[in-house]
Predict the 3D structure of the following.
Amino acid sequence: MEIATTPTTPWRAVALASAVFGAGVSIYLLFEYTTGQAGVCLTGTGCDEVRASDFAYPLGIPMPLFGVVFYVAAGWLAGQAGPGAILVGVPARTLLVLLGLVGVAASAVLTGLEAFVIGAFCTWCLASAAASVVLLIAALGSWREAAPDPAGGRSGKARQQLRRQADGERRAVRRTFLGSLAVTGVLFGTLLVAGALAGGEPGPSGNVDGLAPASRPHLGTGSVTVVEFADFQCPACAVVAPMLAQLAEEGGVTLVARHFPLESIHANANGSARAAEAAMLQDEYWAMSEALYVTQAAWSDLGSTDADAFFAGLAAQIGLDVDRWTADYASSAVAEGVDGDLRVAQDLGLPQTPTIFIDGEVYDGGLSLDELRAAVAVASATGGVGA
């Protein structure tokens, strides 16, 4: 009896290749999370916004670490799932399918959070999700491959054919593993090197004259000066803003706010900056800033006319003289205040929002309260220049 032969490229080899690629993606993201280095992001500021969200560190663990564990486990299982392989009493190919289902479900949840909660997409999170889908498809393909006829396995010719089948599959899997490992290593190694060379430090380091002028909004009177270039439509800025305000309230920081509206990706970035700038003229910059961030999801997708009306409503809610605010909002002086900050950000070569300076040094660490507080403590201990 003839035994069904294994395809030239067995399905589990495809599963292994997708696991290797997914592991490479996760390791690349983990490097960014742990070093604070901004990498290549094809979705604008989406990668940084996702990394700064509340979902980036579940239980205090960097999310990419879960990806590394998942894909390493999937790769190992794909390598073990040969014909007839049994692990813990269950066919290895069945376990691979179950693991693939877990990966796709987790990816669907995370992608949904990016779409409907964070409002930004991380390029490499999407790549990881795609890898999990390919892994599941390949696992199902492997699981559905025709099994050898048990009756035929009794003859010497059938057993020899089975051995050839298994040997051929092992060679294909080995070649796939080595090839995908080499390609993935070269790809992400190149991205890491390119990010290090291109990113470096965003803008100058050391004390920068004019970085924290008295004309800009100040909060707190601490000895360490923290300057944030922010975009009110940036989700990452909305996450970090209350942390910086808390540091200022704790007494060790003087927080200075500067505008960096990214109009190419955020249609209402300039309008929201002018709304805060106009509120500053009534000494309510920080109240307007908080209101803009809290309601960010409500106004981000509005047309310009509706956004103007929304901002006016915020001005009324925080107790401003709305007529005065409306005139200031449309004034050239307010526009110049926003544009002046934007020119400074561009002259400094700042690549993203938020960009934070701590006593004149670019901060490139994680965007969590503990990490920010630690950086402030270091600046204070080494003799911060203050406000």
About this structure: The domain at 218-381 is CATH 3.40.30.10 (Glutaredoxin). The chain has two domains: 11-199, 218-381. The chain has a mean pLDDT of 84. The radius of gyration is 27 Å.
